[in-house]
Amino acid sequence: MQATENIRRDTAGRRRDVLERLGSERDMWVSTSHPDHGPHQVPLWFLWDGQAVWMCTGADSATVRNTREEPRVRLALPDALDVVLLQGEATCHSAREVPQDAADAFVGKFGWDPRTEEAPFVYLCVTPRTVRAWRGVAELRGRVVMREGAWLE
């Protein structure tokens, strides 16, 4: 983990930094919840396609089971000094149903194609509705950079 500067960024600066991290980072924490079993959180590889986050996990995973019951999810990039939190609803796509461009981009980023695995995998797609970003107490005010699916100015 790398320390970040403690200079208060405006909304445009936060948005720029969020988009840069979404385009360059590999791992994201995924939080789901099941009505009977409660919360569940795991790290997954992710791909940002400019509009949505794509992840892939085993078809029998708790993440997939939970998402099918309750599609509202929270996502977090793994850095407590440079926080990025996303909220949205996840849709599940089997390897046969995943859009070709998303699956190909996933392969391009990770060098792994879940569609070729013997065990079934499911792609999760989350289009963020809310994004929050902050670095330290100085940036708590104004931390919402996307609301209702629209980036703030």
Automatic annotation (TrEMBL):
<dbReference type="GO" id="GO:0070967">
    <property type="term" value="F:coenzyme F420 binding"/>
</dbReference>
<protein>
    <submittedName>
        <fullName>Pyridoxamine 5'-phosphate oxidase</fullName>
    </submittedName>
</protein>
<dbReference type="InterPro" id="IPR052019">
    <property type="entry name" value="F420H2_bilvrd_red/Heme_oxyg"/>
</dbReference>
<dbReference type="InterPro" id="IPR012349">
    <property type="entry name" value="Split_barrel_FMN-bd"/>
</dbReference>
<dbReference type="Pfam" id="PF01243">
    <property type="entry name" value="PNPOx_N"/>
</dbReference>
<dbReference type="GO" id="GO:0005829">
    <property type="term" value="C:cytosol"/>
</dbReference>
<dbReference type="InterPro" id="IPR011576">
    <property type="entry name" value="Pyridox_Oxase_N"/>
</dbReference>
<dbReference type="GO" id="GO:0016627">
    <property type="term" value="F:oxidoreductase activity, acting on the CH-CH group of donors"/>
</dbReference>
<keyword id="KW-0560">Oxidoreductase</keyword>
<feature type="domain" description="Pyridoxamine 5'-phosphate oxidase N-terminal">
    <location>
        <begin position="20"/>
        <end position="134"/>
    </location>
</feature>
